[in-house]
């Protein structure tokens, strides 16, 4: 009886949280005219130019804009970046495709100086750098028939990013360069990669992959802000209210953050640490500049899929519920992504940190056990989730090792002596 009573109290508490949150959003929605799309930006800059002109070319790196269409109709932005040195531009090394994390986009690889940002560093080492931005971000270009105001536009999760966006990018780069492609992913970019690499048609286009803060299993996430959202069932409430786009630069996104922070259970004075873990080495003075570009929008379904993984401890396709799963998958539970299907011949390099509250070491060990291969590992005890992208010492700590890995796979190539 005591257990039943306790369960009832918990259920009532969750219901109160959900209703309170729902009412606050419904009130806000009544004051806005955005039909829960969350697309009214706070302080939005004038219409952005391409990523090349807006950011990448500031240090003199040649950059060209490209578009690629996915099989399900999304038009993705790609940028091709070359070295400032004429001789390296004329003798392009192997192509490298950069895949960003959740609520980020292709600009994430160019937010620091020319000697600190991985996109510039790879280009100046002679690599043929390609920068990917997934559907829904500000550097993608919409859909062939859907508007961003359509709920169908946001009907996707990282599963579609892995099985549609990444293959489309790889095919395009593979065709233009006539070469297999190195893949570099950070956070969401790694879950896309590892899921995609279970498909033979995708891996045949890949020469090797470097995974920063790899994510497949999320059962041991320790980030307080994330765990608070999971416990509030925020992802499910948002979907139930018909909110399909998550844009934390919108008034609705700000409303959600305020709601979570106001209950005092999460330290929002240091929100980055509450979300990612303690980052040792980012340049705090540049935070305002970073926020000019980040965060980017994503879909509510994508967040829901990630939260399903935290709750269930699985690396699987999206869970639609038993009845819809039977219709879609022919079984009650969504199929798992089988990491043992990643070919042992595909070289992998992994960088991970001791202070990462999202890509936990216990979950990484789970991933490593399921892989056939033995990836090359780089462990940095003091690194958090964002350090691998924005640390002022990342070139020395991380990127030199990654570049060495790529060079070892090319042997005596045009870049081996750079």
From TrEMBL:
Keywords of this entry: Glycoprotein, Hydrolase, Lipid degradation, Lipid metabolism, Signal
InterPro entries for this protein: AB_hydrolase_fold, AB_hydrolase_lipase, Lipase_euk
Domain Partial AB-hydrolase lipase intervals: 54-111
Record's keyword annotation contains Signal: yes
Gene Ontology molecular function, alphabetical: hydrolase activity, acting on ester bonds
Active site: residue positions: 187 (nucleophile), 356 (charge relay system), 385 (charge relay system)
Pfam family, one: Abhydro_lipase
One GO biological process term: lipid catabolic process
Family, per entry: Belongs to the AB hydrolase superfamily. Lipase family.
Name of the protein this chain belongs to: Lipase
